[in-house]
Design a protein that fits this description.
This protein is mostly helical and about 280 residues long. It has two domains: about 150 residues, no CATH class; about 100 residues, no CATH class. About 45% of the residues lie in helices and about 5% in strands. The chain is built from eleven helices and five strands. A three-stranded antiparallel beta sheet has the order 1-2-3, with helices on one face. The chain has a two-stranded antiparallel sheet with strand order 4-5. Strand 4 and strand 5 form a beta hairpin. The longest helix is centred in the C-terminal third of the chain and has 21 residues. The radius of gyration is 19 Å and the shape is globular. The relative contact order is 0.16.
Amino acid sequence: MLNETPRRSTIRLTRRGRIVLLATGAVVAAAAVAVPLTLSGDEGRPEALTIPEGWRAGQVYDAVDQALEVPAGTTRKAAAKANLKLPSDASGNPEGYLFPATYPLDDKSTPQSVLAYMVATANQKFNGPKTTAGAPQNATSQYQTVTIASIVEAEADNKEDMGKVARVIYNRLDHGMPLQMDSTLNYGLGRSTLTTSKQDLKSDSPYNTYARMGLPPSPIGNPGEQAMKAAANPTPGEWLYFVTVKPGDTRFTADYAEQQKNVAEFNKSQAAAKRDG
């Protein structure tokens, strides 16, 4: 975390966000162990594939490759040719629209058909009244709302905090403040990590929300329905900062000095955990 002026204060990535990103990063390297599949009785192709909330598109592609027993990279290539029903803002990039759910598989399933099913599910979920009700009042397009939801999915310590995290994002945008989210920075760098260096903060990536104003150019993962509802209908409040001091204890504030105290407590807690570990 940087010690900056109140307007450019760092929002600390929550512990849940870090843990989820680290764990799902391991899936890419060890998909045979980590991808959640429902196996058929004859040990042939799995009968279903479960996509967890927050997975990045690359992780979804790898999971589909494994489930359908096709060569690595097949689904990624298929995504570019599948003519998926994405919003024009997406420019053909399905990130954010590979909806987390359990999808049935059979002998006729192909990478294209599975991806199309995911996108169709996302369109159905995201176009529902409960997820779109707040978007007009927040002056965001559906695609921008999905982008916010993907950040909420990565940053929130638990589902109960999602609405508050979404409100922090909107408030910072409204105040002309950079989002300063580690989750977006790491997405742009193509990694999942627990640490962020000063050199990282100088990255020229369009996903570096420390150096660039506004939202990143696309979602940074595939949010679930709860995160989408939070992004469309954020909890009312004036918060500009948050930090998860420990699991289950995320503190939101509009006061920079209070945020600094909370961050100091977070750092103290982390130092103690390292000593005890």
